[in-house]
């Protein structure tokens, strides 16, 4: 019998203690998945064609470690607001999707014992990466009116090194408003706090809600790093391309970690990403509109139909559903859902704020949403 190498065992222990992915074991393939954050759409054709062309033209060699210069230029032109001082090539790093951008930022900047503030609940990758880096997690919540609890953040910020914001939020669908950004930037400046803004769902907002990127907040520019990905907005989850934009110093730190774990990103896929930025805005907008329709469909399938409650999300593509506590913790209820033929995400994966919550994705097609919601509600009939 082989014993596990101590280094691998340490990572395994973090993964085992992690909040991610635990209740969703194999189901034999028959379950409908409302669990995964993946658009059902094919990648826009112009993106696929750009990759094929890049390969045909011989772009099969290593790319520059920090990103193909043409993609870096396109990111600066299309994704960074003209008013932002973060407009130099040294402010950009192309990453292996959002996951590597976030992990590299955390591993490149957080030392053992550093305190990092994350929302409770939030995307669970942050907690795993902070633990790997040896950092300490402190959670903050929201006020009863739904706004960020800036008073709590202010208190915690005094002893923290970094705050991570996910907006539009996975799992809650909330967005950070301009006034909240303004106050956050004052707190960050006063407490010398680094700000990591995860904008994986940038622009996926509904009903005319304004998406304010951290890049558009003048007071943050000297302490900011923003993580984005092509995965969600352009239906490119399998392509594994994302990017960071931040101060040259923070980007250089993240780049050191990224180079160590990942190396340069797939060259041809970087040319596909240029096509996404330059030519796929129409397709991205059509997908956003369809997500809005699917949100309405899921809301109509669940509203007043069972003992569940939720707020209608302003962005991303998830419904964050609360159910009566007597049904048991979210891991138990997610397992019951799976037994009834629908996969959902247990809320506990996102923090203690999700103990009696489940996350349902409306990124799948309409048929899956309708049948998935029917199976979901059946769990609460017993
Ligand atoms: C908030 C958030 N950030 C980052 C990611 C990771 O994105 P990628 O698939 O590009 O690694 C996800 C994926 O679900 C996410 O929800």
From TrEMBL:
Lineage of producing organism: Bacteria, Pseudomonadati, Pseudomonadota, Alphaproteobacteria, Hyphomicrobiales
Any one Gene Ontology molecular-function term assigned to this protein's record: transaminase activity
Pfam families: Aminotran_1_2 (PF00155)
Keyword tags: Aminotransferase, Pyridoxal phosphate, Transferase
Protein name: aspartate transaminase
Catalytic reaction equation(s): L-aspartate + 2-oxoglutarate = oxaloacetate + L-glutamate
Enzyme class, spelled out: transferase
Family: Belongs to the class-I pyridoxal-phosphate-dependent aminotransferase family.
Gene3D superfamilies with a match to the protein in the record: Type I PLP-dependent aspartate aminotransferase-like (Major domain)
EC number(s) per entry: 2.6.1.1
Organism this protein belongs to: Jiella mangrovi
Domain Aminotransferase class I/classII large positions: 32-375
Cofactor(s) annotated in UniProt: pyridoxal 5'-phosphate
